[in-house]
Amino acid sequence: MGEDTAPLKVALLGAGVVGSQVARILTSEAETLRQRIGRPLELVGIGVRRADTQRPGIDPSLFTTDVHALVQRGDLDLVIEVIGGIEPAATLLTEAMNAGASVITANKALLAEQFAGLSATAMANGVDLYYEAAVAGAIPIIRPLRESLVGDEIRTVMGIVNGTTNYVLDQMTTQHVSFDEALAQAQQLGFAEADPTADVEGHDAAAKAAILAGLAFHTSIQRSEVFCEGISRVSQADIVAADLMGCVIKLLAVAKLTDDDRVIVKVHPAMVPKTHPLAAVSGAYNAIFVESVEAGQLMFLGQGAGGAPTASAVMGDVVTVARNRVRGTASHLSTGYTKREVAPIGEATSCYYIRFQVEDKPGVLAKCATIFGNHNVSLQTCQQSYLEGLGRTDGFTASLNFMTHQARESDLQAVIAELREASFVAEAINYMRIEGT
Length: 437
Fold this sequence. Notes:
Layout: E1 8-13, H1 17-28, H2 30-37, E2 41-47, E3 63-64, H3 67-71, E4 78-81, H4 89-98, E5 102-105, H5 108-125, E6 129-130, H6 142-148, E7 154-160, H7 163-174, H8 179-188, H9 197-200, H10 203-217, E8 227-228, H11 236-244, E9 247-257, E10 263-273, E11 285-292, E12 296-303, H12 307-327, E13 349-358, H13 364-374, E14 379-386, E15 398-404, E16 407-408, H14 409-421, E17 425-434
Parallel strand pairs: 1-2, 1-4, 2-3, 4-5, 5-6, 8-10, 10-17
Antiparallel strand pairs: 7-9, 7-11, 9-10, 11-12, 13-15, 13-16, 13-17, 14-15
Binding site for NADPH: 108
InterPro entries: ACT-like_dom_sf (IPR045865), ACT_dom (IPR002912), Asp/hSer_DH_NAD-bd (IPR005106), HDH (IPR016204), HDH_cat (IPR001342), HDH_CS (IPR019811), NAD(P)-bd_dom_sf (IPR036291)
EC number: 1.1.1.3
């Protein structure tokens, strides 16, 4: 067999929900892949924790628990990693690249922590590092940021990047159920894990936000630099308040370039106007909204999780990397050359919705407005309602609802701190950021 028709040797790390789908496609679509790449792909090994687990449809002779030996064998062209976590994934990918293999990974946690090091290893060895499946499943967002929009200046990347939280908030909005009820439904349907902490507390979305921000703004951003707030405290009262304001609540990953050329990266629940494209994203779908100087506004929508959708993104990278291998090239695309500073959350700006209860006495509204003014927070609207018949006996029988103009996070927090000290304000103060206005 001539060199130009020899198979490209592929190793797969992980045979779970995504890995088993990748193995299926590599096998069942072998001829189609050969036509698209120009040479066949040969799956030569699958690294797993237990080789005796039944995995229907996959040749059991491919399984090995000696994953280090697999990636170090020296004749691999591609290594596909879908095991997740930081270790042993980081060591395995490093070993694979040092042995001359290009790598494709779906590991958001790893990339959010160690992208710079992995990218440097890829460049040093003249191999590829591709990771389309690490963010938003089947949605092609990494390549547009990495390649298609690289000649433009991106100002904002904002999106729904976690299907579990979007499903929970969607059920709370459309079915009027509590957070606990919506989460239980998500678990029953397989949208949420038995331990949903990483999803509902925003950690999963924060890792993806770090990756997206790094690509969009060409700088190295660590997961620890992403402000993170989850949805576990979102209540039906918040859902109703959002609806009255013409908004819906979404967990958003937001990355923005500031006027002084710094980067804000944050994850939090936000009220989104119903007129914004992200407001209509329902169920477990993901969507990412990009705004750039030249291209304007772009929207990417699709399934953000699941074996087949994620495997689709993996296989897109496999074909691209394999084609590079056939041509004897690699795409060394640095994303850290600008070295922009990540600004603290206190310097982020947003509109805000604030709700709290006060004593129903003359002058209270004016005192509250003065507190906002003292901290440079300008008010757009104010609504006052009464809590008669709700059994309150502590004197806080009026409810005030404010919406602000754009304000600094630190100024808003100063307002909240002073309100909490005021004798005419009840202790509980609810607030939420408003994005997409």
